[in-house]
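Hey, can you fold this one?
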Amino acid sequence: MNRAETAQKYNEQWFQGAPFGDPAADPEYEQLARRFLCGDVLPRDGLTQAQKALVILSGLTAGNLFPALRRYTRAALSAGATPVEIKEAIYQCAPYVGLERARCALEEVNAAFKEAGVSLPTPPQASVTEEDRFEKGLDVQRRIFGREHIDAMRAAAPAETKHMQDFLSAHCFGDFYTRGALDLKMRELITFSAICALGGCEPQAKAHAAANISVGNSRETLIEAATLLLPFMGFPRTLNALACIDAATKP
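Sure. Predicted structure:
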């Protein structure tokens, strides 16, 4: 099967053959886009089709590419991702991209769900309470990054910014990492993907590349995630992501 035939196959599988834009106005761009995404990138091995879809949704959310989210949510359903997994991928982005950006993404996801006949709201996934969200979040944080590192970071925080460390443990890790539907490996992969798509966050991308390794994701998995994001965030941010992976995984 040549690249054009592969592109047609994956375009049918993911998008039911729908065009990327206006093929009458931009036929050459239509071919370039379809053959790169569907002929080169989506056929790669390393992640399941559903995992690919969740990584892409996180990149679209972080990149403010909201008009595309409805289309890619429908594609995620076609790729085998469940409605709860799709929602959780967007939720997981929130501490990194901001609450309002995640909310804008959820509006498009919800619109796609309504078009597809998916019942809303999806089943709740929270597993913490007001009383234990900090302790459970801190526990997850320590498991991912190491107890000594997290405790030293918290101890070294100036008094005027200690609340940020508490927010990080309780909100980012307590409210989100403890939720159901996605395991820790997938949540860390989504986090890494969103941070890379944001751009300008290389220190955090390096830290979460290392965190992915600590929870059981491989260097190859991280490279596949960066490759999947390439059509949406471009070569500069993708090359930065690869450099962060190298920094975290090479001696």
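The first helix runs from residue 3 to 15. Let me know if you want another pass with a different chain boundary.
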